[in-house]
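Escalation from tier 1.

The customer reports that the assembly of four entities below gives different structure tokens on two consecutive runs. Tier 1 could not reproduce it. I'm attaching the input and our single run for tier 2 to review.
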Amino acid sequence: MNKRQAQKQFTREKIIAAAKQIFIEKGIINTATSQIAEAAGIAHGTLFLHFPNKDSLVVELLDAELSKFSNNIKQLIVETADVNILLSQYLDIIQAEEGFFSSLARELPNYKDELRRKILFRESLIREHFHQVIEKGIEQNIYAQVDIPSALTFLFGTINYYLSLKTSFVQQGSVIEKFKPSIIKTMKDLLLPVQ
Amino acid sequence: MNKRQAQKQFTREKIIAAAKQIFIEKGIINTATSQIAEAAGIAHGTLFLHFPNKDSLVVELLDAELSKFSNNIKQLIVETADVNILLSQYLDIIQAEEGFFSSLARELPNYKDELRRKILFRESLIREHFHQVIEKGIEQNIYAQVDIPSALTFLFGTINYYLSLKTSFVQQGSVIEKFKPSIIKTMKDLLLPVQ
DNA sequence: CCAATTAATGAGTATGCACTCACCGAGCAA
DNA sequence: TTGCTCGGTGAGTGCATACTCATTAATTGG
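Tier 1 run:
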């Protein structure tokens, strides 16, 4: 890679980093492209050499975040046998990525149709992971009592609702929760399709 | 009231009715004042004879809705002794007013500070009613298992979270839920102050 | 070393929006 | 009837913002 290409890549990364931070702080709708450019230390016009429009910057950022996120989860699922530990660590990972995702989820209903559709399609990726975690839980027939981080209530509204449909019982002094059998089918149906 | 005054009042009501409907359909942020005027069948400029700006139209509409809502709840609390019935009917009333409130709640994080502050201040009205319902529940020491309508998850995010911290037990064949005692104080603290 | 390439610049354009104001005409008081 | 009042009108203004493009300057290949 020659000097020009390296410089171009560097600029692109500055834009993405700046965009992510400002989007988390102020939301996407309330962030002007000129502000992103300023924060990245480049001219306003430069931003549009790297991204054809604001929406594509959002989508690209989302894809990058999802890719990191997805790799972490995949590894976790392969490595962790115990569902209690798996679910707990799974939620830790979600929480770590919380900022940008929840900023997206918060504003999602206000986006134009086109952008909203793109984001919702990608949300199904997250559902798929969650489904794998549930699969393991069903095999082992037990779930630990875990709070879905409240910031994810919106993104995972449906999941959260179904998580509340648990039966609970006490085992060795601590409360253990188990999904009602009738719920499991519905939950899987809900998590998988969409696209 | 002479013909002129009557006409003015009529126009004002047309604006409010049109605004409410469009806000519910498309959200407040994505509705232009010119669209409200068009839906109300008046000139764009006329809207600003009745309301100094868009925000004040939103706030006025919110106050009107809250006032209706609040009167209904007050009456319900006075008339209904049984908490199970009270809570259930309380949620029915909320659900009936759901459209405009949830459109507000959905967009709230994206509003400018000034408008957001005004709306949050008014949300405390709703909290106060909810607190009275909880008070009655604490006296009677029992809550029916009730789903907070999912559309209200956002507006009542905190409340919803605390509602999940219940102990449950089976009585006469049906599940009865009771708040954990340690939660009740926290919940009361959370619901009352804010302003 | 020179000409071609290309990343970067930032003033400029197009658009959409909240809000204004000079003007109009129906209703009212005399 | 007459002149005034005032609600209504809609083209116009100012502003914010996404996006463009003629120009500049650094880098490259020959």
